[in-house]
Design a protein that fits this description.
208 residues, mainly beta, outer membrane lipoprotein receptor (LolB), chain A, 12-stranded mixed beta sheet, 2 helices, 12 strands, globular
Length: 208
């Protein structure tokens, strides 16, 4: 996962018809109707990253989100989380935690952006349909309203429950793909899940 720096997006689709744009807006409205009424969500995921150098890696974990701007991403060797004020990136392998102020700007990755507010931050178009984990899904391509370091992004939304099942993001450094499974809405996640107390034997790098 390598610090999970999945920055936001910048590729504009050309020649997309108005009917496709309208379809995208209807899909977005249905997705938001699912997420706007909830407080939190939990899902297991697999994450594949392919670097510009040609190297790639895949891992799995669990993602937790809570309004507003709180998320926690756990894998075998790393935990990345924020309470919306402070961010922590903890590597058990390196025995190191990096602490910084949470920055809610155009270059900050946040799962909440894709679940709660991406219509405000991106232009959306329907690119087609694909089957993801046995589910028939709409494929939406997102284009940023402002420039960032990422080149393009796609989101797959299932046609039955209108939940986001897959996210793919291309940046100048890598391409990242998240496949979401076992999605649970209003899972009753405690706010303590989004704070972090470093173990006593780890190096603390505080950038605040």
């Amino acid at each position: 996962m390598n610090k999970i720096k999945l920055l936001v997006i910048i590729l504009v689709l050309l020649g997309v018809s108005n009917s496709y744009s309208q379809d995208a807006q209807e899909i977005i409205k249905k997705v938001q109707s699912n997420y706007n009424g909830i407080n939190d969500a939990k899902a297991s995921f697999s994450h594949t990253v392919k670097y510009s150098s040609g190297k790639s890696q895949t891992e799995s974990g669990t993602i937790y989100i809570q309004k507003e701007n709180k998320y926690r991403i756990e894998t075998k060797n790393q935990v990345v989380l924020t309470d919306g004020v402070t961010s922590w990136s903890y590597s058990s392998k390196k025995k190191q935690v990096i602490i910084d102020n949470y920055k809610n700007d155009g270059n900050t990755f946040s799962p909440n952006k894709y679940l709660f507010s991406y219509p405000e931050n991106f232009y959306s178009d329907v690119e087609g349909s694909e089957t993801i984990s046995g589910l028939d899904c709409y494929l939406l391509k997102l284009s940023p309203r402002s420039k960032g370091n990422v080149k393009s992004a796609k989101i797959w939304v299932d046609k039955d429950q209108y939940l986001i099942r897959k996210i793919h993001i291309n940046s100048s450094e890598s391409s990242d793909t998240y496949l979401l499974k076992k999605i649970s809405l209003d899972a009753g996640i405690s706010s303590s899940k989004f704070t972090f107390s470093p173990p006593s034997d780890v190096e603390v790098i505080d950038l605040r």
